[in-house]
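Model it.
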Amino acid sequence: MKTRLLFYCCSLLLICCNTTTKEIEVNEKLFTLLKSDETGINFNNRIKDDKDKNIFAYANFYGGAGVGVGDFNNDGLQDIFFAGNMVPDKLYINQGNLSFIDKTEEAGIINFDGWSTGVTVADINNDGHLDIYVSRELYDENPEWRRNLLYVNKGDGTFEEKAETYQIANTERTRHATFLDYDKDGLLDLFLLTQPPNPGSLSQYHNADNLLIPEYALKLYKNNGDNFKDVSKMAGVDRTGFPNAVSASDINNDGWTDLYVANDFYAPDFLFLNNQDGTFSSIEKSALKQTSYYSMGVDVADINNDQNLDIFVLDMVSEDNFRLKSNMSGMNIGSFWKVVEDGGGFQYMYNTLQLNNGNETFSNIAQFSGMAATDWSWSNLIADFDNDGLKDTYVTNGLLRDIRNTDADKNVANYINTTRANWLQKNPNAQNIKSIWDVVDLEKAVSMVPSQPLRNYAYKNKGELEFENSSKEWGLDDESFSNGSAYADFDNDGDLDLVVNNINNEAFIYRNNSETANDRNFLRIELVDDNHKPTFGARVKAYTSQGVQTLETTNVRGIYSTSESTLHFGLNNLNKIDSLTVLWPNGNITSKKNIQTNQILKISSSDSKKITPKTEESSKYLFADRTSSFPAKFNHIENSFDDFEKQILLPHKLSQFGPALTAGDINNDGLDDFYIGGAANQSPSLFVQEQNGSFKEIETAFWKKEAAYEDIDALFVDINNDGLTDLYVVSGGNEYLKNDFHYTDRIYLNQGNGIFKKGAILNSARISGSTVKAADYDSDGDLDLFIGARHTPQQYPNPASSMLLINDNGQLSNKTESLSPQLLNLGMVTDAIWSDYDNDSDLDLIVVGEWMPLTIFENNNGSLSKLEMEDFKSSYGWWFSIEQGDFDNDGDMDYIAGNLGLNYKYKTNSDKPFDVYYNDFDANGNADIVLGYYNKEKHYPLRGFSCSSEQIPDLKKKIVKYDAFASMELKDVYGEEKLKNSLHYSADTFASVYIENIGDGKFKMTNLPNLAQLTNLNDMLISDFNGDGSLDVLGAGNLYVSEIETPRNDAGTGVLLLGDGKGSFTAKRGSEIGFYAAKDAKKLITITNNKKDYYLVGNNNDALQFFELQK
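Modeled.
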């Protein structure tokens, strides 16, 4: 399914992996894998390449098949239906105690020719009996063999195939399907994942210019009772992608079912919002900041119990260094940006866990959750498997052959092409060769590609958005080639068992042993309708002393498969639920109180009543977005510059850190004015507030002349003590070589009446700067400036020299060498703060930066000396900001430091640090960047063979093979001596922290709450925002400019840390409080306008935002 970008791919010949069940003591493992002679289920989805159908003809040949669960005979036990690719579909009826009988033939399940993939179970005709819809594909030249099947349940243990009768016998290659009542007419409609051909390298479609054409579009059929009608175009869902999976869920809490479609390859995932009028709108561009590239399975559920449904989508990247580098040749830069430019959004080869922001937008937190990389994944299920009240995840994994193995791909291509050429040379007059496999040995071609069964993944939800890989501990680590999966309580003991459809191996049946553990209570709810109308779309909330759990009924989950429809609540040690509500599809509500746990509770829609929906008022939020109505407008427009052309292996761009943003009263009228800087070749703007609250942009001709500079930071400050606020602007960027005049900082002296003129800065260095901070640190009555140097242009990560500008009667002069020489070559400074950390009545300087520790310069009578602080020795990070306040009310200054965050691909700690080396490794006169990381105790290059050899071409001669590079540690690739002699930095932590000042030069660092770790914090403001008497922290961030193989930091939506006055904080996401600052936020300031407090967010390459604090 993943070979569209490859030349040749291969298959496995009847190889079975070893699934011998271990003897497991009771309670030792959460799950037990049962043998087929215990369960009676010996279904095996056997696949073998042959001349007519193989991986070379069909890229999805190893895609596997699904499984459907349902109580087909209404005996209270969940039964199982398996789809088979090259083997017949099978129906197993549950006899109790996890024992099943094959009833396929007896039930009338026919062995039709074709390739079954998906299983969808639902009562399509409202007769109270579950029916089965089978999705089929492959067979480009035989549409009849692609005809979907509908087995209508006759209620007597038998089924009748009636897809033609119901007019849903689609032959257009259907991967899967879901039933939903999208128009709320009480009838289940049908949505099909129809798609283009999946051509292998020898398919007639392989070189097709564009397969995303209307004839392969998705299909929506409206249920008219006795037949279905195609309403795809009318409903607005007739879009073409490469769909693998779908979830029908209410993602915006309006009571109507929406659709999320996971699309393979370069097609974007689709998010169809139900318009409540029979049509849908595509909102993925506004709702999703980034998506998976090879989107596979999808499941939707509330992972953090905030009553919003989140979206989990799988991809195919491995967490193992060798498999990652041998099977992934690297993302093509041109292809990546073409997808973006064509409207496909930012797509990365990682799983995505889209956290619902509650406002029809999502933030991807997969990297934070630890579930970003699960190898070649298929099905994902979100459910509470250990009954602790938190939803866990299960992920199936494995591909029959590693068809993306770069070396094998080349070897197979060479074998086929050479063999064919040799044969034609020997048989120049040959005609009517039916198949290339009459010339080339198919089995040999297949065998050249590695085959490695993989362990599936299980992640335990630990709360606070943290998950832990528990596959081994839970007994779910058997190696396999697993595809579709489903959960159900097959033995009715109050926990969720698992069934998995495997390729070339018997299906897995895992018994869940939660019932044997203490404090693993549950409540299972069956929703019924007296007239058998569908209950899909119903939402149930359980209110307990431990919070609120939310479950929604939906049809299919993961990939190709249908899990049980019973709603399962894990309840940990609770013996009762305080209250429970059911919101039915028709809008009625059922409420119940004081419900005992450990039971199956049937709830009928007849026991419900109409309610009047409450309208949410924006006044409930602490902030309100006033951007559209605020009387000032500015759009930062970033100039085009490719940093990676200068340094191929940069971890991120360094040319996009603006805009500068500062506020002050420039005309002494008591009103706040503000300045916002432009990118290179964009004029900055000075907005002056007028008495009526409006703003006027002044002196535009003057500021237009300053457009050549890239404004990174700015500060209104009275330099010459004339009572007028002057303006200092920091120049930065990465477009020019070091010491270029474009890196000259500027001081604009206020002449009054809104007029400014440039002043001089004596001995100023031309540095690419980051920050300006003012203080009278030498106590002489005027303000001096610290200027942070962000980096040495085009020489990352060489340290840069920051500046100390002394104010001598209104004249700024660079006195760094004499007063603080340790600021020279200090590092890559991002922020700083003047602070009397030691309460000795003078201002010291605290500096943070990229690849830097928290650094204090002590003020000794005007000289600044760097201190070696024991508490900060292991504080090297990628710091972006620092602010201060007495957060614990003990009389000294504490600090908040904003770091990269914990939702980035890069991970680090002091024992296994993420690091960088800078040296001329190939002696060509140019220094090279080498990033390192740890994987399973070994130190490897971060980047793969393709891009590494692009930077150092000699690597291709030295190493040659991708597999060889994938197995080599950093020292093997670059040499220990070269590494030893390199500029070397390493990081201890990427967590943003609270730094408690204990006194006597001692500090204690504590990680901020998890919601503050979802992106980097670029800027912060300290104030008592909620009026409770304690200092709070308002932060904003994001980093949009990472290299393309690293998902950009874009999960930030703004964050408010509510302080308790004792040094602890409760985090609120911006979307929760009305402060939705979700762009590439760089600066945060406050102004007063019409007696109201406003907070301005300066966004890179985007509009300036204005938020009102609602008191």
